[in-house]
Structures are given as C-alpha cells and as structure tokens.
Amino acid sequence: MQTWVTAVRQALEIDVEMDLDAVLDVARDAAHSVARPAAPVTTYLFGAAVARGADPAQAAAIISELAASWGEQAD
After folding, report:
1. Is the dihedral of CA 1, 69, 51, 42 positive or negative?
2. Crossing angle of helices 56-68 and 20-33, rounded to 10°
3. Cβ atoms within 10 Å, residue 9
4. Which residues does 59 contact at the CB level (< 8 Å), separation at least 6?
5. pLDDT digits over 7-65, tens only?
6. Helix H segments across the chain?
7. Model's pTM, two decimal places?
8. How many CB atoms within 10 Å of residue 19?
9. Are 11 and 3 in contact (CB under 8 A)?
C-alpha cells in the first residue's frame, strides 16, 4: 500500500505527510456504519478538511464519532 501511495503522490506532484492508518480508519468507519459508497466520499472530505488546515487526528475523530452514531440517522 505504501508503494502505491508514494507512486500516486509522485504522479500528482504532491509532497504532503499523511497518516495512512487514519485515512483507512475513516474509510472503514464510513463503509461499515453508513454505506460502502460513503468510504471514498468521506475520505475525500477528510482530505479536503486536512488540506484546509484541520488537525488530522481531530478530523478523523469527528468522522468516526459521526459514523458511529449514523445508525440513528436517515439517509
């Protein structure tokens, strides 16, 4: 997986640090608690929030908490 991430970063010419485990955790939480298609959309939004300056750990925690409570929500 890390080889893939490195290749994508190089291809897109982006030099950013990322916590791969946090991204995968966010995707897992969205896929399991909301719906499978929510995983890529949620990780995109997570990345946008971090690019905007959000703390990655805090953003991941917010998403995980939201996903955990999502069973109570309607689509």
Report:
1. positive
2. 10
3. 13
4. 46, 49, 50
5. 999 999 999 888 999 999 999 999 999 999 999 999 999 999 999 999 999 999 999 99
6. 2-12, 20-33, 38-51, 56-68
7. 0.85
8. 13
9. no
